[in-house]
């Protein structure tokens, strides 16, 4: 991963002259997030994400995002024993962004929408209960369509490597990390 990242930093191409975003342009982001839509309990692993974006017009980009997070919920006690649930969240979606700035080679600001799916699964940890007893505690897994939006920016430290940050509703309420131009 380090060798790949180093190669992208030193051999990344520059998009449209004078702009941080334009045709041709493609980038990959890897980031960490704070907060997660629909989280149960306490976060064990903050949202991590990997996304891709490519320019289809001088100011419009489309791409995809995948993310992962986990949490746990202490359910208390039932029939004299304690129990808890461990949750995992896998998020996959398509994204579209509109890029605002022109004549700025280092900074790129954008806003966009995400449409995806949040696959939520749970694992019961506790005493061996009968199915009827587990039904009294309740089912804990659910998955749902994810409609989100983001407002973000990228700052290019070199022609192929930069930092990004986004706020919005999606993988995390705040996401930040590294960006690589392809």
Helix-strand pattern: HEEEEEHEEE
Q: Reading side by side through the largest sheet, how are the strands ordered? A: 1-2-3-4-5-6-7-8
Q: What structural class should be given to the helix and strand makeup?
A: mainly beta
Major β-sheet profile: 8 strands, antiparallel, barrel
The fraction of residues in strands falls at over 45%
Description:
This protein has 182 residues and is mostly beta strands. Helix content is 9%, strand content 62%. It is built from two helices and eight strands. An eight-stranded antiparallel barrel has the order 1-2-3-4-5-6-7-8. Strand 4 (81-99) and strand 5 (107-125) form a beta hairpin. The longest helix has 10 residues, at 2-11. The two termini are 15 Å apart.
Distinctive features:
single chain; 182 residues; mainly beta; eight-stranded antiparallel β-barrel; 8 strands; disordered N terminus
List the helices and strands and how they pair.
Layout: H1 2-11, E1 26-34, E2 42-57, E3 60-78, E4 81-99, E5 107-125, H2 131-137, E6 144-156, E7 161-169, E8 174-181
Antiparallel strand pairs: 1-2, 1-8, 2-3, 3-4, 4-5, 5-6, 6-7, 7-8
Briefly, what is this?
The protein is mainly beta. The protein has helices at residues 2-11, 131-137, and strands at 26-34, 42-57, 60-78, 81-99, 107-125, 144-156, 161-169, 174-181. The longest helix has 10 residues, at 2-11.
